[in-house]
Write a structure and sequence with these properties.
426 residues, alpha/beta, Rossmann fold, six-stranded parallel β-sheet, four-stranded mixed β-sheet, 13 helices, globular, signal, LACT/PDAT_acylTrfase, O-acyltransferase activity
Length: 426
């Protein structure tokens, strides 16, 4: 090093150290390092249709048409691969995703000749589609921000995907794994309690976990907080589409018609779980009507009979859980973030076309109210009934984000600010 260069370096360093002093200099360095030092570990619980499902075909007896395979040598991504949603091929996908429900036990099984599993990597939640189609970005933004804050996938960012086709009482295996995963995450991160980040269906799935699976002492030790994003705490009127015309989850509308998924959606116990809740919908408040007849939470059985799916009532009855259907407090700190001011279906109206009935397969007229475009405001706001007084001393805060839709809430600055505050708050 030349004498001139040494002089230049010393001339820059000496005034700095004299100005701040050694202790102050060390403190400043520590603050800079803290900007990329992770806080409490994060466990992500995704929403409806957001976990990947892998399948292996072991000899299906029937198939919709000749294009559909009946056997595969290994597991493949059944959901979600956009190329498996194309014309004709989608029939094969839907047929393999259907569940077979037993009303006596309340349990479902995969279609005969189909075995399924759910991969558990963080990467699997960043995009809905395995090809990472830009519009399928899901938790990608949140994971990217966490990494900027010093977090690492699979160490202090943990995924907790589950089979979203099934209602909570069918997820006992998932809850066992979740409990173990949370305890391990706590242990490998210096005994820091975790922060749960749930989106959509993932939140009532976790409410079941809090109220039916783990104890107050366990929650006190392992859960720091729960950040809910777009939670359908009390279901959603939109679910009516999953039993009538079909619903494409507002994804891939270009290639996927809503009716394409109907044969599968009706078989899912998670659909029944998300039916409008008696805890929030009034006994005379209609979510659907046909030719002057209103369907409310008081005559749900008639709704299922009239759409030609009577087994739906048994599915519904099996999902009326203690603690969830009554919206009991979770017993953990809650930060409830949701969008408002977006047109959201709150009632579907069918009418007769002359002598011909258009119910339930034709497109209904939608009556809109407030919400996030998918979940009604009354369901999003159900967390407001909880407070420190009835939630075991744990605080409950709500954050309304005007104009944020159901998926967009994952990218909102308010969501990121709330999450960062929770993660780094001592």
């Amino acid at each position: 090093m030349s004498l001139f260069f040494r002089f230049l370096v010393l001339s820059l360093l000496i005034p700095f150290s004299q100005c701040y002093g050694f202790d102050e200099y060390q403190h400043l360095n520590a603050k800079l390092r803290d900007r990329v030092r992770p806080g409490n570990p994060v466990v992500i619980v995704p929403g409806d249709g957001a976990s990947r499902i892998e399948a292996k075909l072991t000899g299906k007896l029937t198939a919709p048409h000749r294009l559909c395979a009946k056997n595969t040598n290994d597991y493949f991504t059944l959901w979600l691969d956009i190329y498996l949603l194309g014309k004709f091929v989608v029939d094969c996908t839907v047929d393999s995703l259907k569940l077979v429900f037993d009303p006596k036990t309340g349990l479902s099984s995969d279609a005969p000749g189909v075995e399924t599993r759910v991969p558990s990597s963080v990467e699997s939640l960043e995009y809905l589609d395995i090809h990472k189609y830009a519009k399928s970005a899901y938790f990608a933004h949140i994971v990217e921000e966490l990494e900027k804050w010093g977090y690492t996938k699979e160490k202090d960012i943990i995924a907790a995907p589950y089979d979203w086709r099934r209602a909570p009482h069918e997820l006992i295996g998932f809850y066992d794994l979740l409990r173990t995963r949370i305890e391990k995450t706590y242990s490998v991160n210096d005994n820091k309690p975790v922060v749960i980040v749930g989106h959509s269906l993932g939140n009532p799935v976790m409410l079941y976990f809090y109220t039916n699976v783990v104890s107050a002492d366990w929650k006190q030790k392992f859960i720091k907080s729960h950040v809910s994003l777009g939670a359908p705490w009390a279901g959603a009127a939109q679910i009516i589409r999953m039993y009538t015309t079909g619903y494409n989850l507002n994804q891939f509308q270009v290639v996927l018609a809503p009716g394409d998924l109907l044969p599968m959606e009706r078989t899912l116990t998670s659909s029944a779980f998300l039916f409008p809740s008696r805890a929030v919908w009034g006994p005379t408040e209609p979510y659907a009507s046909f030719d002057g007849k209103n369907y409310t939470v008081s005559n749900i059985g008639e709704f299922f009979e009239d759409i030609g799916y009577p087994i739906g009532m048994a599915q519904y009855n099996w999902t009326q859980y203690k603690g969830v259907s009554t919206l009991d407090p979770p017993g953990v700190e809650i930060h409830c973030v949701y969008g408002t001011g977006v047109k959201t279906p709150e009632k579907f109206e069918w009418s007769k076309n002359g002598y011909w009935s258009t119910f339930p397969k034709s497109s209904p007229t939608e009556v809109h109210g407030d919400g996030d475009g998918t979940v009604n405001l009354k369901s999003l706001q159900a967390c407001k009934r909880w407070n420190a007084g009835n939630n075991g001393g744990k605080q409950v805060k709500t954050y309304e984000v005007s104009g944020a839709d159901h998926i967009g809430i994952l990218k909102e600055q308010v969501s990121m600010s709330v999450l960062k505050d929770v993660l780094y708050r001592i």
